[in-house]
Amino acid sequence: MNAMTSNKQEIGERICSNCKMRCTPTQLYCPRCGYILPDVLNNDARGMMATGTLIPLELGQPVLIQPGTGFFHRQARLFLHHDSGKTLSVDVRSGIKVIGRRSNEAAAESNLIDLSELGAKEFGVSRRHVQLSLSDESVYAIDLGSTNGTFLNRERLIPEKPYVVRNRAVLQVGVLILRVQFG
Ligand SMILES: [Zn+2]
């Protein structure tokens, strides 16, 4: 190993401004703390304009809390993890998605994220429970007047009101728990 470079950032390596973890060039978000990586923002003029308050970040400079976990990069994908090991990919770029469960009587909406196989009915998930949408480079959740409520990090959402969904948030649909991951 070259001692001259052993303590420095490797070419292409991304170091998380929040927790200092060394990340690979292909990662957009720190896998440990969920913050967007600073180089991703530095190399993304559109992202910087959209967030307004962002300035190019020097290595080690703290990342502002707002874009830290709430900024949804234009190349990012949205995943919902369930404790069973099942992961749902939610394509928020193609339009509004509705999380719920399939009705036996009617054909499923094409934008339905069906939680039936995760035991949706038993866990109090309404047919049209909560919607996820992308706007201004943030993902928003809106509870659709569900019977048992939607919770983000244990906070109950007021129906019809949009809330920013942050990377690694815990999204509780009725009593069914999903973990949000941007990747
Ligand atoms: Zn980190």
Portion of residues in helices?
under 10%
Question: What is the global morphology?
Answer: elongated
Residue runs with pLDDT of under 50 for 5 or more positions:
1-6, 44-66
At the first level of CATH, what is the class of the largest domain? Mainly Beta
Rg of Cα set? 18 Å
The hetero compounds bound to this protein are: zinc ion
Question: How many strand segments?
Answer: 13
Number of helices: 3
Largest sheet: 6 strands, antiparallel
Any overview of this molecule?
The chain has 183 residues and is mainly beta. The protein folds into 2 domains: 14-70, no CATH class; 78-182, Tumour Suppressor Smad4. The protein is built from 3 helices and 13 strands; from the N terminus they run E-E-H-H-H-E-E-E-E-E-E-E-E-E-E-E. The protein has helices spanning 38-42, 45-51, 65-70, and strands at 14-15, 22-23, 78-82, 87-90, 97-100, 112-114, 128-135, 138-143, 150-152, 155-156, 162-165, 170-173, 176-182. The strands form 3 sheets. The protein has a 6-stranded antiparallel sheet with strand order 4-3-13-12-9-10, with no helix packed on it. A 5-stranded mixed sheet has the order 6-5-7-8-11, with no helix packed on it. It is elongated. The relative contact order is 0.15. Bound molecules: zinc ion. Zinc ion (ZN) binds at residues 16, 18-19, 21, 30, 32-33, 35.
Protein traits:
five-stranded mixed β-sheet; six-stranded antiparallel β-sheet; mainly beta; 183 residues; disordered N terminus; 2 domains
Topology:
Elements: E1 14-15, E2 22-23, H1 38-42, H2 45-51, H3 65-70, E3 78-82, E4 87-90, E5 97-100, E6 112-114, E7 128-135, E8 138-143, E9 150-152, E10 155-156, E11 162-165, E12 170-173, E13 176-182
Parallel strand pairs: 5-6
Antiparallel strand pairs: 1-2, 3-4, 3-13, 5-7, 7-8, 8-11, 9-10, 9-12, 12-13
Bound molecules: zinc ion.
